[in-house]
Inverse folding.
C-alpha cells in the first residue's frame, strides 16, 4: 500500500496541509515542535482509529475548531482509494470512502500502517495499558471488525462499573443486584472474543519477534510473549498473581468463574476486576521480564521487534501488499549499529516515511525524497493539488456509527 497524498484541515497545528509522498523512502525533516509527528499521527489514525500520543480525539482538533479532517489518497496496486475521516470535538466521528459515507470502523480495511515511535519504549517499560493498546491496535489492523468488538466491550464495561459504584453507594449486596447478571453475560461474550484474539496474536507474533530481535540486537536472547489473564484468578493490572494461561479450559467459563469469585470484592471497590481490561502482555528476554530486568538497549530491541513483527504479519496477511512503515523520530534514540540494522530491515517495504530533527541521523539507505517542515509549512519540490480541504463530512440520516 502507498499513501500518495495526505490532506489535513484543522488537524493539530495545521489549518491546512497538503503532503505528496513517493513510493519507497520519504524523509520529513524539521526541528522539534514544527509538525512532523502530526503528519505521521494523521496517517496512523486512518489505520488504527487512534493516536499513539493521546487517548482521546479532541486534542487532535486545532484550537478553536469543532472538527478536523484527515484525507488520504491510497494506492493498492492499480486501485486508488480516497479515505477520509472527520474528527469531531464532540459527538461521533464521520468517515467516507471514495466520497461515500462509511463507518469509521471500515477505515482500517484500506489503510495499513505500522508506526515506530519513541513512545514504543512504553510498550515494554510502561504499565499494562500500554501493552494492551499495542495489541488491540494491531488486532484492529489485522481484523477490522475487532474495532466494534473492542468498542462494545468498553461500553459494557463502563455500564457494569457504573452499576457497581451505584450499588456500593446504596449498600446493595448479593442477590439484591440481579441486574448485574445481564451485564455479566455481555461482558463475558465480548471479553472472551478479545482474549481469544489476543492469545492468537501473541502466538502468531512469537516467531517474527524472535527473528526481528536477533536481526536488530545481533544476539539471540530468546524473546517471549505471553498473556497474563485476570480470568485465571490474579490481577495483572495490580501486579498480583499474574497467572499465565494454560492450553485447556474454556475462556468464557473461566471468565464467569472469575466474575463470581470476585463479586464481593467488586462490590466493595465499585470496580470490574476481571476481564481483558485487566490483562497484561508479559514480555521476556533471557527468560526474565523485560520490564525491570532488561537493559536500555535490550528494551529498545524488543520494542522495535514488536513493530517489525507487526509489519511482517500485516505484509504476509494483507492482499493490499506491504503496510506503510512510519519511523517517527526513532533514529535519534538508537545507537549507530541499531540505526543501520533497522534501516536495512525496513528499506525494502513499499513505502517508508521517516521523520527526523537532524537529517544526518537518517541512514543513507533511507535518505531519498526529502520534505522540510517549519512551523506547519511543508516545503517540497512538487506542488500538491488541493482536495476540497474545508468540506465537512455529512452523516447519513440514520448514521449511528460509533465514535472513532
Amino acid at each position: 500500500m502507498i499513501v500518495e497524498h495526505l490532506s489535513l484541515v484543522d488537524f493539530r497545528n495545521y489549518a491546512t496541509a497538503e503532503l505528496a509522498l513517493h513510493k519507497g523512502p520519504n524523509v520529513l525533516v524539521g526541528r522539534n515542535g514544527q509538525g512532523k509527528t502530526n503528519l505521521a499521527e494523521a496517517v496512523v489514525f486512518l489505520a488504527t482509529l487512534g493516536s499513539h500520543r493521546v487517548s482521546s480525539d479532541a486534542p487532535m482538533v486545532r484550537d478553536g475548531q469543532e472538527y478536523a479532517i484527515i484525507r488520504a489518497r491510497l494506492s493498492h496496486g492499480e486501485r486508488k482509494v480516497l479515505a477520509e475521516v472527520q474528527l469531531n470535538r464532540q459527538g461521533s466521528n464521520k468517515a467516507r470512502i471514495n466520497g461515500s459515507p462509511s463507518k469509521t470502523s471500515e477505515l482500517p480495511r484500506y489503510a495499513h500502517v505500522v508506526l515506530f515511535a519513541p513512545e514504543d519504549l512504553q510498550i515494554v517499560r510502561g504499565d499494562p495499558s500500554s501493552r494492551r493498546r499495542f495489541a488491540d491496535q494491531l488486532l484492529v489492523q489485522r481484523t477490522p471488525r475487532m474495532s466494534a468488538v473492542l468498542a462494545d466491550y468498553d461500553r459494557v464495561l463502563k455500564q457494569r462499573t457504573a452499576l457497581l459504584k451505584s450499588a456500593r453507594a446504596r449498600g446493595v449486596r448479593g442477590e439484591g443486584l440481579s441486574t448485574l447478571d445481564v451485564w455479566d453475560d455481555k461482558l463475558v461474550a465480548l471479553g472472551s472474543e478479545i482474549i481469544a484474539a489476543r492469545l492468537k496474536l501473541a502466538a502468531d507474533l512469537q516467531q517474527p519477534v524472535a527473528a526481528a530481535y536477533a536481526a536488530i540486537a545481533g544476539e539471540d536472547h530468546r524473546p517471549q510473549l505471553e498473556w497474563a489473564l485476570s480470568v485465571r484468578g490474579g490481577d495483572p493490572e495490580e501486579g498480583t498473581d499474574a497467572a499465565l494461561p494454560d492450553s485447556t479450559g474454556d475462556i468464557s467459563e473461566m471468565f464467569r468463574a472469575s466474575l463470581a469469585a470476585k463479586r464481593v470484592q467488586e462490590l466493595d471497590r465499585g470496580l470490574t476486576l476481571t476481564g481483558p481490561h485487566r490483562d497484561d502482555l508479559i514480555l521476556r528476554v533471557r527468560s526474565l521480564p523485560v520490564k525491570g530486568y532488561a537493559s536500555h538497549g535490550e528494551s529498545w530491541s524488543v520494542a522495535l521487534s514488536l513493530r517489525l513483527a507487526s509489519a511482517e504479519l500485516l505484509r504476509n496477511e494483507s492482499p493490499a501488499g506491504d503496510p506503510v512503515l512510519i519511523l517517527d523520530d526513532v533514529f535519534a534514540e538508537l545507537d549507530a549499529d541499531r540505526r543501520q540494522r533497522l534501516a536495512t530491515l525496513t528499506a525494502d517495504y513499499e513505502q517508508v516515511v521517516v521523520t527526523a530533527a537532524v537529517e544526518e541521523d537518517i541512514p543513507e539507505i533511507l535518505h531519498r525524497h526529502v520534505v522540510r517542515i517549519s512551523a506547519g509549512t511543508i516545503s517540497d519540490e512538487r506542488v500538491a493539488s488541493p482536495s476540497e480541504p474545508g468540506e465537512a463530512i455529512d452523516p447519513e440520516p440514520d448514521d449511528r456509527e460509533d465514535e472513532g
Summary: The chain has ten helices and 15 strands. The two ends are 23 Å apart (CA to CA). Confidence is low (pLDDT under 50) at residues 242-248, 382-389, 395-404. The longest strand covers residues 2-11.
